[in-house]
Design a protein that fits this description.
alpha+beta; Thrombin, subunit H; 2 helices; about 45% strand; globular; cyclic-di-GMP binding; PilZ_domain; PilZ domain-containing protein
């Protein structure tokens, strides 16, 4: 196995954990197809053409278990690649609050851990309910007296 140095500061996962909309210079908003996301940036696909170093605002709705979080993050395009149906863009966040960065990193790590775990997580659609009767069974009432 080859040894390599991980360049990334944050883990990344598929864009399935969130929905994203971008706007350039406060202009028209475009819902984008996220390829992946990390606490440091995103990769997305679009038919629209943007140049490298274009500043943009990313509005994210991040889904975590039974909650959703909304955040707006400024960033800029660091790489443009030609894709099958348009372009693929890599965006680096440059104005993300430490709170949003930690929150996003924790959600991504939790998502990755649940995928790699053999145990079921709430987002798998499998729930366990414990039904507690209103009263105690007669046998338990006698024992506790």
């Amino acid at each position: 196995m080859d040894n390599f140095t991980e360049r990334r500061k944050y883990q990344r996962c598929s864009g399935s954990i969130c929905k994203a909309v971008i706007s350039v210079n406060g202009g028209r908003q475009e819902e984008i197809e996220l390829c992946d996301i990390s606490a440091g940036g995103i990769k997305f696909a679009s038919q629209s053409r943007y140049e490298e170093n274009t500043s943009l605002t990313v509005s994210l709705t991040v889904y975590s278990l039974l909650s959703e979080f909304k955040m707006k993050i400024d960033g800029y395009i660091i790489r443009v690649e030609r894709a099958k149906h348009g372009y693929a863009y890599s965006v680096k966040f440059d104005d993300i609050s430490i709170y949003n960065q930690v929150q996003l990193d924790e959600i991504i790590n939790s998502h990755i851990n649940s995928i790699n775990s053999n145990r079921h997580a709430a987002e798998d659609g499998i729930y366990t309910f414990m039904l507690v009767p209103k009263g105690r069974p007669p046998a338990l009432k006698k024992v506790q007296r």
